[in-house]
Amino acid sequence: MRVRPFTGLLLALALLLAGCAGGGSGGDDGRITLRFQSLAWQDDSVKATKELVEEWNAAHPEVRVEYVQGSWDSVHDQLLTSFEGGEAPDIVHDASDDLADFAYGGYLADLSGLLPERLKSAIPERSWRTATFGDGVYGVPFLQEPRVLIANSALLKRSGVRIPTPEHPWSWPEFRQVTKRLSGAGRYGVAWPLKEPVSATLNLSLSAGGELFHRDADGRAEVRFDAADQVVPRTIRDQVRTDGSASASTLGSGGSDTLPGFFAGKYAMVPLGFSYRQQIAQQAPKGFDWQVLPAPAGADGLAQGVSPQTLSIAEDSPHKKEAAAFLDFLLQPDNMVRLALGDWMLPTGTEALKDPALHTRQSGWATGTALAAHLRPAPAQSVRGYPEWKDKVATPALQEYYSGAIGLSELTRRLERDGNLVLARYQR
């Protein structure tokens, strides 16, 4: 095929630009540019992240970081496309429960030999396990959030119920009784926003000793929906179907969807991720008094599954050492606190968690920080095939169980039999 000179020049330029599109680059002046895709979305979080990028760039003119805005809504598919197309950013912001397929697929760099000892020792082993797959570490867990109960303070006080604390939380049976006491006159004791029910159910079930995914001697995962795994889903279903203390209409809702009803006094409590406090603080009517309570405790106390936000380095990045140095800067204790405050979440770093700003009673910071030591890797953290199991098996099964369309035996059958058929395809 013959190409006219001008067309050929344009084609050459296009190919050159395409070649520079993915990963970091080195300019003619020897300066390295790293592309950092951030999923920060709240105004304070975006501001804090961009400020830290600017501070790095001011202090490291030879290694410039370019901020790229990503979105939680599409991050998995977007990253998969960019990895396969050779256009992935050097530094990837994601969540630990989304890393398994990328790690096993060879798209992420093993950070074991790249990170400085300071950063390795700053974060507890239980947090590192959330980003460990096989023998490698494929992300730095840096922000985390427990699920908590956001409660209407006036309704709690009026009911006379015992107010739980991290030292003396409600048990799951006590929580059920409290929600019954808080119900009545067009009001529900609790609203469960379970549009995506799997993560909430599995993570809270750790408190009751639920594991769901069990591994054999060869490391193969098997789903077993035992009595401990049933405590939380049975409580929720009983609140909705038997007690009438939980709203059936919110089962298909997201967390934000429940807030207008919460502010209007229709729901006394809403179980939400810790970061929802920012929306509540911004949107609550003037004079509305709310407080943060720990989630109920079970046989394993306040244990709770968590999938921290992570920062990873693309395997195709030509500047892994420089990217690791930027991560070390970004996640210095003071900087980690800035990111946590911006996102209304908790830092994973032990030193960062000691910051006085995270221990105030205002907006429930002290309650959340007290729960940090009880957070564990989410049950499905390293299970290959989990996304398909969640989407095709667990989500519809739990939605039908909570709505009353199926019973416990059918839920068990579908989670175990259908679920293990899915997992088996990934573990051959």
General description of the model:
The chain is α+β, with helices and mostly antiparallel strands and 428 residues long. Helices cover 42% and strands 15% of the residues. It has 17 helices and 16 strands. Strands 1, 2, 3, 4, 7, 14 and 15 form a 7-stranded mixed β-sheet that branches. Strands 11-8-12 form a 3-stranded antiparallel β-sheet. It has a two-stranded antiparallel sheet with strand order 5-6. A hairpin with a 2-residue loop joins strand 5 and strand 6. Helix 2 packs antiparallel against helix 14, helix 8 runs parallel beside helix 10 and helix 16 packs antiparallel against helix 17. 46% of the residues are buried. The N terminus is likely disordered.
Helix content: 40-55%
Radius of gyration based on Cα positions: 23 Å
Strand content: 15-25%
Low-confidence stretches: 1-21
Q: What's the helix count?
A: 17
Strand count, sense and closure of the main sheet?
7 strands, mixed
User: What is the CA-CA span between the terminal residues?
Assistant: 47 Å
Identify the quaternary structure here.
single chain
The structure class reads alpha+beta
Mean pLDDT: 92
User: How many β strands by DSSP?
Assistant: 16
Shape: globular
Topology:
Layout: H1 5-21, E1 25-26, E2 32-38, H2 43-59, E3 63-69, H3 75-84, E4 91-95, H4 100-104, H5 117-122, H6 125-128, E5 132-133, E6 136-137, E7 140-144, E8 147-152, H7 153-159, H8 172-181, H9 197-205, E9 213-215, E10 221-223, H10 227-243, H11 259-263, E11 269-273, H12 277-283, E12 290-294, E13 304-306, E14 309-313, H13 320-330, H14 333-343, E15 346-347, H15 365-371, E16 375-377, H16 386-403, H17 408-426
